[in-house]
Fold this protein.
Amino acid sequence: MHGYEEHREQHLAALRRVEGQVRGIARMVEEDKYCVDILTQVSAATRALQSVALHLLEEHLSHCVAGAVEDPTVLAEKLAEAHTAIARLVRS
Amino acid sequence: MHGYEEHREQHLAALRRVEGQVRGIARMVEEDKYCVDILTQVSAATRALQSVALHLLEEHLSHCVAGAVEDPTVLAEKLAEAHTAIARLVRS
Amino acid sequence: MHGYEEHREQHLAALRRVEGQVRGIARMVEEDKYCVDILTQVSAATRALQSVALHLLEEHLSHCVAGAVEDPTVLAEKLAEAHTAIARLVRS
Amino acid sequence: MHGYEEHREQHLAALRRVEGQVRGIARMVEEDKYCVDILTQVSAATRALQSVALHLLEEHLSHCVAGAVEDPTVLAEKLAEAHTAIARLVRS
């Protein structure tokens, strides 16, 4: 059982919205919309994806990581793994 | 005619791929995949979106902006508008 | 004459502030301050640097780029160069 | 005792380098260097600061957070606090 199960429906709803945003951006490109307006929508979709990532990460830290406290080796692994994911988010 | 028309098919293909990535992320959430693996996919989709934005911006600068050179007022407007879009990308 | 001359004093003042922020962060590390408080200051310094970059870029676009309009080859070069700088900012 | 003590000298050295980079950027502005070259240096300083932040965070997770495992309340607080710092880094 993963940390995000509790809010799974929320994550799915947020991801469906991002999917719709990306489809909307493709439609704007097809319909020759003005580039700056397309860029505004791309920034919005990027921020929405970032927000999903931060929520998943929060739950990961408070469930998977906090759930590994009995075993220092597993905990160290979980923290190292979480750090790799965080570095990727910060740099993307 | 907008700057991105020339590469419209490429942009559409890239956006379809991002849409597929986001749908894939939703599927991972539904199937209870491991959070860290989901985060990896979210980072990849974010970078892909950023890359679409940078291509659209490049074409916008070289077509719409460069196409406004005869009129200093229009050029100033286009550059101010491009700058707003850039600031949004840098901060998102 | 570069685009940023007009606001040179403002840029210098902003950069002195960032320099002070970074020195303050080093002092916090020396004095064993709490890591989360240090991270807050690092985020603030990063945003301040980003803000300097966006101001420099805005002036670059409106002076150097807009000043190259008589020569399409030079303009294309300036825009390509600006785009490289923008991509670096978006990805950093 | 904080997580970063072990690598304090490395963090201080990295921060001194960033301070030198920012001072170098101010010098470039004073000496009227070309804006695009200044932007390249700003991107480098931003990435260097980000890298310090990620190292501090890594140590924070593996010391302060991992050190709070005996007390679930404290651990939850530490994780929530770390998440706030991470969200700030991701968004800056």
